[in-house]
Amino acid sequence: MTVPGSAVEKLTGTWAIDPVHSRSGFAVRHAMVATVRGSFRSFEGALRLDGSTPTASHATISIDTDSIDTGNADRDTHLRSPDFLDAGTHPTITFTSTGIRPGSGQDSYVATGGLTIHGTTRVVEVAVEFQGSAVDPSGHSRVGFAATSSLSRKDFGLTWNAPLEAGGVLIGDKVTIDADISAIRTF
Fold first, then answer.
1. DSSP 28-90
2. CATH for the stretch 5-185
3. Using CA atoms, how far apart are residues 3 and 132, in angstroms rounded to an integer?
4. C-alpha span between 30 and 165 (Å, rounded)
5. Rounded to whole angstroms, how far apart are CA atoms 123 and 96?
6. Which element (helix H / strand E) includes 7?
7. How would residue 139 be classed by pLDDT, with cut points 50, 70 and 90?
8. Suppose 141 and one of 95, 101, 166, 185 were both cysteines; which one would form an S-S bond, judging by CB atoms 3.0 to 4.6 Å apart?
């Protein structure tokens, strides 16, 4: 982080993700012509930030698969089914960081960790950008981060698809993950 020294050290501590002011989303190609976007309405997580040594920081997040929302009830029901997330058997998606290193830009990092979807865990890299810190009108200390990653849904056993008459498939394999995180200091 390129925040002045004393400000960086003030970030050291434990922070709880504020789901009311955060978003966890995704995007995937549909019918090879458009992109469908969605989000998860229910998630939680914690950040353990080390302002002196940002690469010693740690993050965890847990997402309720039943809370998927693409703006279409029928599609959401299908995504909760055993064809996709199988929310009844796999109620959460989790990410636990195992390492953080500096990214290529100012205030950017790469978090490496285990992502578990549909009962399968894979190591993924998440690009993270520090968005800033502030004290809100209620007196809560907040930090913000934007995070992005992409993955192959097949790597997590999400293989359902349907062929298109003109060639290709209904749903793309690449899923782009994006999150905007606002977290409140808990100590």
1. EEETTTEEEEEEES-EEEEEEE-SS-GGG-EEEEEEEGGGEE-S-HHHHHHHHSTTTT-TTT-
2. 2.40.128.110
3. 9
4. 14
5. 10
6. helix 5-9
7. very high
8. 185
Residues 37, 26 contacting (CB under 8 angstroms): yes
Domain extents for the chain? 5-185
- The rounded distance, in Å, linking the Cα atoms of 21 and 136 is 12
- What CA–CA distances, in Å, run from 180 to 23, 26, 28, 58, 85? 5, 12, 18, 17, 22
Segment 170-179, tens digit of pLDDT: 999 999 999 9
Length of the chain: 187
Q: Say yes or no to pLDDT of 1 above 90.
A: no
Q: How far apart are CA 178 and CA 38, in angstroms?
A: 10
Q: DSSP letter at 170?
A: S
User: What count of Cα atoms within 13 Å lies in the side-chain half-sphere of residue 156?
Assistant: 26
Give per-residue burial for 2-28: e unless 16+ CB within 10 Å, then b: eeeeeebebbbeebebbbeebebbbbb
pLDDT at 2: 44
User: 53 versus 181: which is more confidently predicted?
Assistant: 181
* Local confidence band at 54 (pLDDT 50, 70, 90 cut-offs): confident
